[in-house]
Amino acid sequence: MKAYWIAPGPSGTTAELRETPTPEPKPGEVLVRVRATSLNRGELLGGKTGAAAKPGGGECAGEVVKVGDGVSGLAAGDRLMGRCAGGFAEYALMDAREAMRVPARLPWEEAAATPLVFLVVYDMLVAQGHLTAGQWLLVTGVSSGVGVAALQTGKALGAKIIGTSGSAEKLARLEKVGLDVGIRTRAADFHDAVMKATDGKGVSLVVNNVGGSVFAECIKSLGFEGRLAIVGHMDRTMSATLDLEALHSRRLAVFGVSNRLRNAAQRAETVRGFVRDVMPKLDNGSLRPLVDKVFAFDELPAALAFMESDTQVGKIVVRV
What does the pLDDT look like over 244-300, one tens digit per residue? Predict the structure, then answer.
């Protein structure tokens, strides 16, 4: 089969198309014929320059080809989406515990744009963030894949959304999918605008996609019993000063969102919660992933360059 291997380089992520053996599913795994896959900034930009190339692609959507021992309830031809190993390829493996059926109304491209960002968002907003209808949610870097999914899911939960971006054009586009207040900035200077929007109360939950450079401003923007989710570090700033008095007096909570150290059973628990709480909204069409641009399989290097240009709003998808 054809598969892309990726590696970080001095001028951006590089991709090499290789002919590789089609993988065989081990017990508990499912082999899918990939129909679409999507790009995720954390996977593509997180490595060190000079690191060895590795199979790319952490999520995909496709049809079941073969199931491993111990897998029940799935058969050849079933449409699945989920986390995978090596999604930038014609075939990929999924852990059956993390595989999700594709809603009938979702095309392959939107299905491929769903698993990683929406599962992360479910973890942040529902499982840990306890966001409820009527509360205010602040999303820094709102035009990113995770940022847009947080906006869309927050709106589906009945929350009011504030988002930051350095682009007025991106904020205008996101107003059409439910952004209540857009703040044009790339700096840690949004506290006053947040307080004005919330009548001085602050927000209930912050999703920090940007990193340490805005951490203190996020803390300032939280209201009583507010929660701060740390999910991204686009600014490459990995440390920040914490206002302990604010944390103490306002009974704040700060939590991280990463699957790096979670085992498959823990990830599967999040999948079950997502299927229970959010999948019905995908089934009935009230929630649709926002796909910015779709590339053909042989255009995957161009898709990587497009992501690194930081011009997208939502997800970048590759049709296989």
Answer: 999 999 999 999 999 989 998 999 999 999 999 999 999 999 999 999 999 999 999
Asked if 116 and 58 touch (Cβ cutoff 8 Å), the reply is: yes
Rounded to the nearest integer, the mean pLDDT of the chain is 95
Which pairs count as long-range contacts for 256-263, CB under 8 Å and 24+ apart, including other chains?
256/229, 256/230, 256/231, 257/120, 257/123, 257/124, 257/128, 257/229, 257/230, 257/231, 258/231, 259/120
**Residue carrying structure tokens 């744009």:** 113
- Sorted by where each starts, the structural domains of the chain and their CATH numbers stand as 2-114+290-319 (3.90.180.10), 118-256 (3.90.180.10)
Taking only the tens place, the pLDDT of each residue in 110-148 is 999 999 999 999 999 999 999 999 999 999 999 999 999
Q: How far apart are CA 63 and CA 45, in angstroms?
A: 29
Question: Cβ(35)–Cβ(294) under 8 Å?
Answer: no
